[in-house]
Amino acid sequence: MVFEQLYSAEYLHDNPWYGFLLGAGYTVLGLFIALMIWRDDPALIAVGIISLLLMPSLFQLTDSAEISERKTPTFKAFFSQTLPHAKVYAFIFFGIFFTFALFSILLPKLAANHLFKIQLGIVTGGAATAGGAVFSTALFWDLFTWNLQVLGLSFFLSLVAGNGAILFIAWNASVWGTVFGNLAKTAAVASTANPFIIFILIILSVFPHTFLEGLSYMLSAISGTTLSDGLAKEQLASTTMWHVFKYNAVLLIIAIGVLAVGMMVETYVLGNFMTYRTIINIAFPR
After folding, report:
1. Running DSSP on this structure, what letter comes out for residue 127?
2. The pTM is what?
3. Which one has a higher pLDDT value, 267 or 102?
């Protein structure tokens, strides 16, 4: 392919914020291709195209990181390589997220409903609880167990098809961007406010748990991808392979911990954050 040559693996590793441009650019291209060829159901196809376009760059990034890890198989070396990798994933995620959100806000409602009907079909919502600060243990476990399954699938897909979890990451970015953008536009129409101001308020409300949840998927994807690469390039009984397995097991445990914290934050926000609940009530009055 040609597009992955825009940024070399080393350049992307050293300048991870360029991942935002890749995510945004590939999203626009993916949506255009899907809309031109699969007009009846473009949104889901677009996510697949975005993932396919990103795969070559991510494979190069994984190869570059794995080479460094094998030279110095220590915890410090492993995590020094993991951090830039995670940053690239995060910037790609937000490139996709904000592009879907922008189109959701700017497109006419009929066009947006058609283009993003799969994403808008995802059930969302929150608990409207009166009184002081509350924390619903039942809601937390519902959110945690569901997202833990997604995290496990992200790890497994990356393990069997290195970097394959970009599909889950791109899908979540498209859903969240579309849902939050549509919520901002709907609330703006109902209140005659500026949709971009409402969108900023939504982002301020949901960013902590959205980022933590997305980060947990990214870490699990990196863990599965690196382990997959190690299994392909190292002897199973070698000392280096043992280090790769051990460090990626730690990374997976960290991903689960990050997810747990994210679900705690989301549970609290859904039950107590008045700005977010007010916007939902304006957009979808009962």
Report:
1. -
2. 0.82
3. 102
